[in-house]
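Problem: given the chain below (218 residues), write out its structure.
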Amino acid sequence: MSDKLYEIMIHALVLFTAFPVHECAHALTAHWLGDDTAKNQGRITLNPFAHLDIMGTVMMIFVGFGWAKPVPVYPGNFRNRKLGMAITSLAGPVSNLLMAYVAMTVYKILAYIGYGSNAQNISIVSDIFWYITLLNLGLAVFNLLPIPPLDGSKIFNAILPDELYFKIMRYENIIFFALIALVFLGILDGPISFLQMVSYKVMDFLTGWIDVIMSIIT
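Solution.
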């Protein structure tokens, strides 16, 4: 398999796993908090085709940076508008962190089994779960950046005065294109890689019980 084809397959993995989980978490949390806007549009689903954006999908597959369709949220339906938006926005990155935890758990178990039996097929599957772990950590870290229109900016809004927040959001489209430029120029690679590495070490620590158990069993 060529490196380019393998890269495309990894990018597709993000589209069909991490993105749907992320967007579904937003929609489900909004529903729990009293806003059924996303629910009424069929967004409480893990079906990736309900969440994929055409341009974001093409960009993700061939460039490695993309986006899903934003989940529609009407803050007026929340009992507390700011808190409701912050929790709904936080749900996406948290869902990816949880998915990363599950993926790392499976990865470690398969890695121990594969190492003990030298089974190549098990090793391939364990590598897939390792990639799922990294991809979900990367998505969570990136979305937590306090930059519009990322989730982190909506979470940060909970502590910002409304006047200041709305002034910033006037330039959301400009900031979004600037964000894309920063990504393509590689300016954000360092900070994101560092945060991803830190989050990976945290996940490794939280799944340390597997290392203890598997070392005893194997």
